[in-house]
Amino acid sequence: ELIDTCNLLLHQFNIPIKVINVEDIGATVFVTLYEGLYGEQLPGIVRKPVTREDEIHNCQTVIDSLSKDVLHISLSHIRAVEIINHAREDIAHLVEIFQGLSEYILTRIETDASDYGGKVPEYCLL
Predict the structure, then answer these.
(1) What's the CA gap between 28 and 46, in Å, rounded?
(2) Mapping DSSP to helix (H, G, I), strand (E, B) and coil, where does residue 39 land?
(3) Total structural domains in the chain?
(4) Cβ(86)–Cβ(93) under 8 Å?
């Protein structure tokens, strides 16, 4: 189910990545999901990660931004190092957050579209 949920999220944002197993779900997937969700590059990301530390840094940047800028709650139960170590529980928590954000945004777009006679307002397309 975790892999299916992740693939569905990637598909919803037209991201041409498919994960096959939990080991495929790492920093690159989460950075890509974040940027797909918000339509802009996340500052501070190492764009060509080489080391394990680069991967941990990128994953922590996603977690920190979700915590501080989006959700305004602590996500201390999700640790970047555990995601890079393929810890299923931490990965599942982060996938669930992205699933919830995706549902929220898609519901808002549908609501806004119905409020505007079926047309999606321009600000939703940015």
Answers:
(1) 10
(2) coil
(3) 1
(4) no
CA separation for the pair 112, 69 (Å, rounded): 23
DSSP 8-state secondary structure symbol assigned to residue 68? I
Range of the domain at 62: 2-125
Burial 113-126 (b: 16+ CB within 10 A, else e): eeeeeeeeeeeeee
Query: Using 50, 70 and 90 to split pLDDT, how confident is the model at 108?
Result: confident
The predicted model scores a pTM of 0.85
- pLDDT tens for residues 10-42? 999 889 999 999 999 999 999 999 999 988 999
Here the CATH number for the domain that contains residue 22 is 1.10.418.10
- Rounded Cα gap, residues 15 and 12, in angstroms: 8
The DSSP secondary structure of 14-28, one letter per residue, reads T------SGGG-SHH
